[in-house]
Amino acid sequence: MFKLQELIRRDIDKLAMNITTEQGKTLKDAHGDVFRGLEVVEHACGMATLQMGEYVPNVSNGIDTYSIREPLGVCAGICPFNFPALIPLWMFPLAVTCGNTFVLKPSEKDPGASIMLAELAMEAGLPNGVLNIVHGTNDVVNAICDDDNIRAISFVGSNIAGMHIYARASAKGKRVQSNMGAKNHAIVLPDANMDAALNALVAAGFGAAGQRCMALSTVVFVGDSQPWENKLVERAKALKVNAGTVPDADLGPVISKQAKERIHRLIQSGVESGAKLLLDGRNIVVPGYEQGNFIGPTILSGVTADMECYKEEIFGPVFLCMKADSFEEAIDIVNRNKYGNGAAIFTTSGAAARKFQTEIEAGQVGINVPIPVPLPFFSFTGSKASFAGDLNFYGKAGVNYFTQIKTITQQWKDLAAGSGVSLAMPTSQKT
Ligand code: NAD
């Protein structure tokens, strides 16, 4: 893993260029994609201590008990399109350093970075057969779910695929961790630092063209939203939409023509159900890329919880604005949403932030932090419909996920002759 880390750093520009070319995100963002994955490789370098078991000497009568964590065997990972380097790196470095072999299925939409990472892993000395890549779509995924040799499946992607995989693989007795869709809300209180909060909303709403599972796609303004919305529009308008390779591009295209059409449809459904289109990015044309799947920053206001654009994950550069009369009402709106990946609050009140932290039902909570994805010594912690399984990705949970625990109870002493046979359940109590 030390060597892999060094090689990824050596080739980071090539990896980023591959991501931008296949996925469309800006080069700067593609570097971030690799860097956040690199953090997991660095975490895996500490596997010796992360995987340590526990030991209690002389639990009774000269008996010691200890636990060891052993590999599961063959594990598999199924990846989404939106982070072509980060998500594979969430999976295979921990899996193989825990002693497993790994079958990785990248997204069929942008498999290049996975191949490059596997080549780097081999150059770093990973033995042949430890990391394997298979390409394909539903049939290959189903074969992974059904294969008796595969013991565990890590999935990241949409709810339809994730719940299908969770059900099919669990029925076969496999361990599954499934990270799925999101609708991440920000609550903005009237006392928030306006400039900092607006910058955070714009960056987290439109970065990567909204195609991040931790994108902030919905904001709930408590109190008067008008001044906030006006300024949000001003800042969003200033963003540059262009090919990811153009140096000053802020956001690139969405992943496909189908995705573009779906996002257009959801925007239109919002308008038809009464939301106000404050900024419409649907007719954008990027010179030189007239056929590109670009959508400019789009903002809908007056959105309510019954609208399709609110209930569905849009996964595009579309920001929804909602209003609440009180902080309690805002928390209630967020908690009623079926997803629970992330949520953020913007405020200068410690008491409000603490209330938010306690009452909000989301895995990853940001306090004046828009995309609160923790470093890998913690775990990625989606909840509600955003996650299925028991053990989250990376951190301590990730190590537990990729290993099986075994407890050993041993006694090394000279047994006295003629001590007799006792058929009673052994206990540490003297009877
Ligand atoms: P997707 O579900 O379409 O595809 C993910 C993977 O599943 C791909 O490898 C694909 O080949 C496979 N797949 C798709 N449909 C399938 C089916 N019916 N049966 C079997 N396999 C199938 O997801 P996507 O569009 O690539 O990624 C976007 C989604 O991923 C969004 O919902 C986003 O929120 C989610 N995501 C979640 C996280 C997280 O950590 N919670 C992180 C990144 C992305």
Automatic annotation (TrEMBL):
Major enzyme class: oxidoreductase
Keywords assigned: NAD, Oxidoreductase
UniProt-listed Enzyme Commission number(s): 1.2.1.27
Residue ranges of every copy of the Aldehyde dehydrogenase domain listed in the record: 1-408
The keyword Oxidoreductase belongs to this UniProt entry's keyword annotation: yes
NCBIfam families: MMSDH
Similarity annotation: Belongs to the aldehyde dehydrogenase family.
Name of this chain's protein: methylmalonate-semialdehyde dehydrogenase (CoA acylating)
Organism: Hevea brasiliensis
Lineage: Eukaryota, Viridiplantae, Streptophyta, Embryophyta, Tracheophyta
